[in-house]
Design brief:
Elements: E1 24-28, H1 33-44, E2 48-53, E3 68-71, H2 77-84, E4 92-95, H3 108-136, E5 139-143, H4 156-176, E6 182-188, H5 197-201, H6 203-212, H7 221-231, E7 243-246
Helix pairs in contact: 1-7, 2-3, 3-4
């Protein structure tokens, strides 16, 4: 772990009388990309945020100082157990950890690794957090993908894992509703992160993506963070099992 974190309870409910978010939030994959944007958004609202992921030390320049950074590998169950054992309270779990191996995922070993991080890692985090979320009446938001809905010929493992995230989200939403836990997902489109860097560097590929996207631009991690915080907020209190596309209209085109 890169630094100490103290996930003590910081109040009940989503906001205090002054409008400050008093929840404790765990973001897996929170040290980069979409996860870091989510962590920053919650921290700006006043929540106590723990960003868990790889290269936690290197995330110092990407995250506000108020965000606790913890190094974990979701493929090692003990990492999650050790981390969550230090939490007195958890109100929100956001599963944003993900990997892609474009062009290499037909190798069974690579396929298994991608699925282990993207899908099994999401399941591990959800199950490990269940008891804390049940006590707080908390919520989960998983990060799926537009590739949850159509085939990605160069990324069969990523496509399969993100399709699985959607179905996992629905299954847990039904199973955990009686515990007072809401489970939803966002499905980002083409977002400006490290996972799309090679695509953005290819002028022809980038042109085709932008032409297909009705809003005519790449998405930003902050665009996804806004959707996540909505699904975790009081305005979504009767929303569970939903998958919200954040793709500039790509799926509709």
């Amino acid at each position: 772990m890169s630094e100490e974190h103290h996930a003590e309870p910081v109040g009940n409910g989503e906001h205090d009388a002054g409008g400050e978010d008093r929840r404790t939030v765990l973001v897996t994959g929170g040290t980069s990309g979409i996860g870091a944007a989510v962590a920053e958004r919650f921290a700006a609202a006043g929540a106590h945020v723990v960003a868990a992921g790889l290269d936690a030390a290197g995330a110092a320049g990407r995250l506000p100082g108020s965000v606790s950074r913890v190094e974990i590998d979701l493929t090692r169950p003990r990492d999650l157990e050790d981390l969550l054992g230090g939490f007195a309270r958890l109100d929100v779990l956001v599963n944003a950890a993900g990997v892609i191996a474009r062009g290499a995922e037909y190798d069974p070993g690579v396929f298994a690794r991608v699925v282990d991080v993207n899908l099994t890692g999401t399941m591990r985090a959800c199950v490990a957090s269940h008891g804390l979320l049940r006590r707080s009446g908390g919520c989960v938001v998983n990060v799926a993908s537009m590739l949850s809905f159509f085939g990605g010929p160069k990324v069969p493992a990523y496509t399969a894992s993100k399709g699985g995230v959607v179905q996992l989200t629905k299954a847990l939403a039904v199973a955990w509703a009686a515990d007072g836990i809401r489970v939803n997902a966002v499905a980002p489109g083409w977002i400006r992160t490290a996972l799309t860097a090679d695509l953005r560097a290819d002028d022809e590929v980038a042109r085709r993506i932008i032409e297909r996207t009705p809003m005519g631009r790449w998405g930003e991690p902050a665009d996804v963070a806004g959707a996540v915080t909505f699904l975790c907020g009081g305005d979504a209190r009767f929303v569970t099992g939903a998958v919200l596309p954040v793709d500039g209209g790509y799926l509709a085109a």
